[in-house]
Amino acid sequence: MSQVIIKDDEVDIVIGALQSDLTSFMEAWRPMFSRFHLIIVKDPDLKEELKVPGGFNLNLYTKSDMDKVVDSSSSTISFSGYSCRYFGYLMSRKKYIISIDDDCIPAKDSKGELIDAVAQHITNLTTPATPFFFNTLYDPFSEGTDFVRGYPFSLRSGVECGLSCGLWLNLADYDAPTQALKPSARNSRYVDAVLTVPARTMLPLSGINIAFNNELVGPTLLPAFRLAKEGKFRWETVEDIWTGMCAKVVCDHLRLGVKSGLPYVWRQERGNAVESLKKEWEGVQLMEEVVPFFQSVRLSEAAVTAEDCIAEIAASVKEQLGRSNPMFARAAENMVEWIKLWKQVRSL
Amino acid sequence: MAAPKSSTPLLKDELDIVIPTIRNLDFLEMWRPFFQPYHLIIVQDGDPSKTIKVPDGFDYELYNRNDINKILGPKANCISFKDSACRCFGYMVSKKKYIFTIDDDCFVAKDPTGKEINALEQHIKNLLSPSTPFFFNTLYDPYRDGTDFVRGYPFSLREGVPTAVSHGLWLNIPDYDAPTQLVKPLERNTRFVDAVMTIPKGTLFPMCGMNLAFNRELIGPAMYFGLMGDGQPIGRYDDMWAGWCIKVICDHLGLGVKTGLPYIWHSKASNPFVNLKKEYKGIYWQEELIPFFQSVALPKDCTTVQKCYMELSKQVKAKLGKVDDYFNKLADAMVTWIEAWDELNPSGAAAGAPKVSAK
Questions:
Q1: Which residues of A touch B137 (CB under 8 A)?
Q2: Where are the domains of chain A?
Q3: What residues correspond to the site Required for activity (chain B) (predicted)?
Q4: Residue A105 to residues A21, A96, A193, A269: CA-CA distances in angstroms?
Q5: Which value does ipTM take for this structure?
Q6: CATH topology for the B15-150+157-344 domain
Q7: pLDDT score for B351
């Protein structure tokens, strides 16, 4: 596969700032980020001023920007905590968006070289995905590999990739019980592969290190489902899990691919899983109920854009899940509202 | 969360190694440290008057074509001749719970640290730990040391299901089809991907028989490698045919199929022009076969592998017979295979009756 040519002006790097001093984060990523435009969105709950080093081409959004676009008195959409990045997605007009949590720095590969996560995500998004048949040699469009014997020829051109899900070394994205039971468990295994997650197979989307084709699936990355006591550590949230299942349904329906694997980022130590375990788990339990729903939801042929798909999913959520719990009804409302906002912002 | 095992059970009295060969078994010398504790079933293809020497010190049984004809009588026509597909005869005569099959041009590979890989040990680990076909774990096999289920993986699915098949990979000569081999004759697989993963339910894959292990009690009767080689219009689709059949049946019965580690070192590149001749029809037929397998529905009362397989043979005849008469013969051979299997394995307990009920 030849070198992918990326037009710098096609990419936005959206960073949700949950910590006020972004200096070490930005400096660590400078070699990979500096070519591109950045959107930094400050968590509206963060009181301190943001510290951002110079030399970047960036736009900064804060609570006051959010208030101009979203009327918080009438809306239930919240940009608090990890959801602040969604405001960045709303504001972006670029084709590709890459998002990395602000407690992650570049990782090293098995040769000891720093990984350019941005370049890898862009490679994932700009090469085809293969969701309809599993290639046992993983991504056939990678250098040095191909489709294996027996892979149907008619499926070898693949489909466009809508979403690229990266991974994490050091602190893996485990839920609180898992991390609490294995406090010293760290992910040290570098798996040198990208693969397409097959159609109709669900996966847990981790928002820590993702990228997507904003033109194809943009509206799908939305803030809809929040735990009542959502916190500032990833294992105190499920918002990306909900969004990820919506995104997978949308990609499956629109015949787009979702890739998982490289790139890795290095996730720094933060938080205490045992402390997090003490919080309310109602929301996490609720998520168990939604799995059968997402595995079986089917969209109509009339849904041809991501917006159409989200509207249909929201209607199904309201009808099938909303009756059993108001949290789902609210998620469905948020989804509908998000699509309205999305269209509104783009028509200005 | 699986507790890490301090050592993998050898299973030396529960596993047979099935090796098809037409040349010689010199490759076994390299595998001796890993294979010697086990019983081998050698299936000698080609000229039965030729003597294949088995290196000293191995415990084995060897079957040539005369033996196959003697044991199966008229049913022997379901076993291919002049094709490594004949290996499935070894699965049928085995009395063990697990099978590992490997080609005679596959050697011990090394991992990135330079350590020799005990492929059999890894297959055993894969088979003895559950699979997770209903939801994709982004950190791959959660039961491996050093990893787990990721945040968001449904808790209700974390027990997994029994693993029926462990599909290994190959470094050096990759398993490409003839057209790809012709276009990229020098490409070698040098990427060591340190992962095992479950192939999700509802997704098909191209199964390669070069480095494969399975639980014979759970899926054995579905591991028929079809009609290939001498007198047949097609070759190099034996393992793929079996792979599509076992995947459909595993999906139906709630069993798992894993792929990834272990790697072996594949040393011999077959002739791409010869391969093209063998594969030619398959390349076209495949386009009909894939939609067929993707849409196969097995009725709820197919609760054993044999029942599933017989039902599959009916559907092959009904839907693929019109693609080519070969599929009528293949459907008949599938039935013959099951009849022969049941004759040679008359325990009464049909294979593949797992605790988890069919969907």
A1: 203-204
A2: 98-347
A3: 151, 158
A4: 14, 20, 20, 11
A5: 0.95
A6: Spore Coat Polysaccharide Biosynthesis Protein SpsA; Chain A (3.90.550)
A7: 57
